[in-house]
C-alpha cells in the first residue's frame, strides 16, 4: 500500500512540475487541451520553418553558380553558415531561457524573414554572403523543442520531442520538392519570396498562439544568467549528473555518419553514379523514412523502454550500420542500410535531448537544447575537411569502419559506466 502511495505522490509531483506556469495553469481537461494545442502549434511552426529552410538548400548551389561563385567559394559560404549556426545555437537557447520560448520563436521566424529578404535581393556575391548573417538566430526546431519541453511532463517528453522529427521529414520532402518546382518553373528567386512570406506568417502564428510564458520564472534564471554567451555556464551545465557522459555519446555516435552525409552529394555522383533528379528522389526517401520512424516508432518504444535502454540500442544499431556501410557497393545497398540508419539517428537525437533537458534545472532547458542544436553545425563546420580527407584517401568504406569502431567503443562504455539518469517511461 505504501508503494502505491509513493507512486501516486511521485506522479502527482511530476504532473505538477509540467503544469506550473502562469499561462497554462488551467486545471483538468481544459488545461490538457490547451497544452496539446500549444504543442501542435509548435509542430506547425517547426514544419513550416524546415520546409522554407530546405527550399533554400535546394536552390542555393544554383543561385551561387549563377552569381559566379566557384566550388571553393561555395564551400566558404557553407562554412560561414555552419559557424553562424554553431555560435548562435547556444546563444539562442540562453535567450529562450531568459525571455521565454515565445520570444525565441518570434526571434527565429523574424530572422528567417530577414534572411529570405536578403536572399531575394542577392544579385552579387557579397550580398549572398551577407544573407547568411541572420542565420545566427534561425533556430526554429530548437525553439519548438523549447516549447514542448516547457509544457510536457518529464515522462511525456521523449514521445513529444520524437514527434518533432515528423516535422523534419515533412520539411525535407516538401522543401526539396517546392524549391525545385518553383525555381524551375518561375525563376531562381521565387522560393526566396515564398520563404519570406512564409516566415512572416510563422512569426504571426507564434505571436498569436504561443503563450507569453510557458514555464515559471525562477530567481536562479534572473540572477545567474546575465550573459547570453558564457563558457562558464556551459561548463556548469556539463557538471550536472550524467550530462557530460550523455553529451559525449550524442556528439561522437553520429559524427562518422555526419561526415558521410556532408560528402553525400559527391559520393552520390562518383560512387553511386546518380543524377541530380535521382539524388532528389533519394532525399525524399529519407524524408519518408524519417516521418515513419519519428511518427510511429520512437514514441511507442519510449512508452515501453527506459531511456538508457533506448540509448544503448541506438548506439548498437549505429555500429551495425557502420558495418553495412563498409560493405555496401550499390545505391540499393544504401537504401536498405538507410532504414536502420534513420532509426538510430532519430532515436539517438530524441533520447539524448530528452535525457539532457531532464538532467538540468528547468531554467536551463533552453541553453541545453541550444548546446544540443550546435552539434550538427559543428559537424558541418569541420566535416568538409575531415570527410574530404577520408573519402579521397580511403574511400567510402572508411566512413563505415569509423562508424563501427566509434559506436562499438561507445556501446561498451554505456554498458560499463553507471550514468545517473532519471529513468522513466512515458505514461
Automatic annotation (TrEMBL):
Residues 35-421 form the Major facilitator superfamily (MFS) profile domain. The chain crosses the membrane at residues 38-63, 75-93, 105-129, 160-181, 193-212, 247-267, 279-297, 309-327, 334-352, 394-415. SUPFAM superfamilies: MFS general substrate transporter. Residues 1-21 are annotated as: Disordered. It is found in: Apical cell membrane. GO terms for cellular component: apical plasma membrane; nuclear envelope. Its main location: membrane. GO terms for molecular function: transmembrane transporter activity. May act as a transporter of organic cations based on a proton efflux antiport mechanism. May play a role in the transport of chloroquine and quinidine-related compounds in kidney. Plays a role in the regulation of lipid metabolism. PANTHER family: SOLUTE CARRIER FAMILY 22 MEMBER 18. This is Organic cation transporter-like protein 2. The gene is Slc22a18.
